[in-house]
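pasting for the record
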Amino acid sequence: MRRVVVTGLGCISPIGNTVEESWSNAIKGKHGISYISKFDTSNMKVKIAAEVKNFDPLLYMERNDIRKTDLYAQYAIATAVQAMEDSNINDYIDHERLGVYIGSGIGGISTFINETDKMLNKGPDRISPFFVPMIISNMASALVAIKYRALGVTLPVVTACATSTNAIGEAYRAIKHGYADAIITGGADACINPLAVGGFANCMALIATDDIDNASIPFDKRRRGFVMGEGSAVLVLEEYEHAIKRGARIYCEISGYANTCDAYHMTAPHPEAFGCIKMIELLLQEYGKKIDKKTYINMHGTSTPMNDRVETYAVKKVLSDLAYEIPVSSTKSVTGHMLGAAGAMEAIFAIKSLNEGIIPPTIGYREKDEECDLDYVPNEARKYDIDVAMSFSLGFGGHNGGILFNRV
């Protein structure tokens, strides 16, 4: 089995349009939640979100291509460019051995809304000829593959909020088993629009509050729902010997991945965390070494009552007493929930923690929940030397995914 390392990172998030800006704000505990500016919320239950600010697609794309591309794919292209420039792999890779695994939980929903409005008000002849390619969830992977002439294994992953964790994990397996030498991987979503916000609100997933500083509060007893976020995060994964041979800067190694399904409910996690427990067990089994206190977990931590309780229970069930000795946190407290991009964004934060010895905080944590009793690194970042970092994701449909990173 071949070793797999991370050699490039890129992100567009509600707390920054680069990895360094997003990381800096995460460890400062500076959140990106504000009143929605993308549309009129006067008739909406939910009026806040974590929007991307000051994004300029012209930094990454030609003007003519922007009008033919949904915002979610623009975010994905931007982060792929950042990650590829960070990796500096493009001149060293056999492009038949380069792949793209970028997923989206929902795809081009804003385009869908806009073109539906055209059809209803102006007739079907006014629908854009780019409507279908702009909405389909594989288009981010396809456009990045076109940009970098990635002729190898290329596909999207769609597993709701676990999308980009599964994309990274499946890319890791493809390289590990010899199907590629490098893969551009991650996720993107851009769903802050009336239809998506209204839909999530009506299924009781979003918190309806005007208090932006106490809205996304994972593991706090006052939590009542997540805050919609948006953006993209992308990693470049590379076979270890290939990276060494070209003198690449290596962030870390991936040494474990697991995914399971609760097979229980469309939106709710299994109350006894069967799928999440199995995912963590399989993840540690693949790693093959015993973890100790020098471990950090970036939890899924959505700030919903059920998710946070179930995920905490799963960690305690698998790690037993060690669960109380290691720091865990949810960076959704600063980014909101970036949906299909969340797993990759949180993987980047886990990698930065591993490299810099700093654990990002769970901000807004004030009131302890008796069932959520781990060390959530409340409100302030913590210097903490770690050898292993894990990132967990749980998605609608019962999808559970986890990735394990370690020092090379």
